[in-house]
Every structure is written in C-alpha cells, then in structure tokens.
Amino acid sequence: MSFNSSDDDSQQRFALGFLFALIALVVSTVVGVVVYKRGIAHAPAKPALVKTVEVTTIGAGGNVIAEDAASVVVMDNGLVKFFFASGKAEVAPGANTALVEVIKGVVEGGKRAQISGYHDSTGDLAKNQELAKLRAIAVADALKSLGVAEDRIDLKKPEQSQASGSNAEARRVEVILLP
User: Fold this and answer.
1) Average pLDDT for residues 115-135, to the nearest whole number?
2) Smallest Cα–Cα separation from 156: which of 128, 130, 179, 175?
3) CA dist 94 to 25, 26, 48, 81, Å?
4) What is the Cα–Cα distance from 27 to 35, expressed in whole angstroms?
5) 145/143 Cα distance (integer angstroms)
6) How far apart are CA 5 and CA 85, in angstroms?
7) Which residues contact 82 (CB under 8 A, 6 or more apart)?
8) Closest-CA residue to 167 (of 128, 135, 133)
9) CA quadruple 73, 150, 160, 98: dihedral, nearest 10
C-alpha cells in the first residue's frame, strides 16, 4: 500500500506544481499586457507635421504651400489642413500620418471629426463647389479606411466655401475635432 500512496502523492505534487506554474504564467501575461498597454497610452505623441511639397508660397498663418501640389499640414491646435492640386481631389501622401491625432480623438476620446472643403476663385463656381465636396469626401474616406466609423464623421459645408488668400491656400479641406 505504501507504493500506491507514494505514487498518489507524486501525482498530486506534480498536478499542484503544474497548476501553480500555469497560474504564474497567466498572471505574468496579464501583468505584461497591462504594462505594455499603459506604456503605449502614456507614450509622448510625436508631432505629425507632414510636408511633401516644395516651398513656393507662404499663405495666411505662415502655412507653406506649393502652388499646384497636394500636401498635408498639421497645425499646433490639432487642425489638419489638406491642400489639393488644381482640379484634383487626390489626398496627398502622408495623410495617414497626419490623421493620427484625429483618429485618436475620435476612437479613444469619443469626439467627432468635422470636415470642411474650400475652393479657390478660379473657374466655374458650381464645378469648384462640387470639387470641394469631392475633396472633403476623399478625406472622409481616408478616415474611414483608418478605422473611423462613418457616424463619427461630419461633412460640413463652410459658411464661406471660397477661401481668402492664395489659390493654393484656398484649395483645402480642414479637419477638426468636435466634442
């Protein structure tokens, strides 16, 4: 009988050791995940100022804009400005990087993204207004492709759709966060 009792004790010790090892593995995994996520959440945000064009014009507010090229500028106040080439509605390279803070505000902060499209004073007014709308939709599509829900995006026709300043400054879409 002592032979069976010894086997039972060995099996119990093995089972308890295995159970403790499994519990330790689960606890360390959970702690590791929490520490990793907190590290990401509290990591300092890198500035997302993106300029992808040659400098030719300085617009109102000190924005550097090329006359006929697409670009993206992230302002200090969180405003993101997309500039478009004349007659085009293609979003500039670097859009995804520029939209990081907007996405964070919408997804994590529960805010809404408001998108407004402007146009320059050259050409047919009706065509320019339609082009400003298509540009705003292109920026909205970029946000949606990055995981922002459609119901968190507001397309707003600006009070003055024809912006002042240079034509390059006027051909823009602005994205701001709303509570």
Assistant:
1) 88
2) 175
3) 41, 40, 9, 12
4) 12
5) 5
6) 85
7) 70, 71, 72, 91, 92, 95, 98, 135, 139, 172, 173, 174, 175
8) 128
9) 0
* Mean predicted lDDT score pLDDT of the chain: 77
Residues 38, 77: Cα–Cα separation, whole Å? 25
Q: Please state whether the predicted TM-score (pTM) of the whole model is above 0.90.
A: no
Task: State yes or no: pLDDT of 65 exceeds 60.
Answer: no
* Residue 20 identity (one-letter amino acid): F
Contact 106, 178 (CB under 8 A): no
Return the HEC string of the chain. Answer: CHHHHHHHHHHHHHHHHHHHHHHHHHHHHHHHHHHHHHHHHCCCCCCCCCCCCCCCEECHHHCEECCCCCEEEECCCCCEEEECCCCCCCCCCCHHHHCHHHHHHHHCCCCEEEEEECECCCCCHHHHHHHHHHHHHHHHHHHHHCCCCHHHEEEECCCCCECCCCHHHHCEEEEEEEC
State both tokens at 135.
Answer: 């540009």
CA–CA separation, 121 and 163 (whole Å): 8
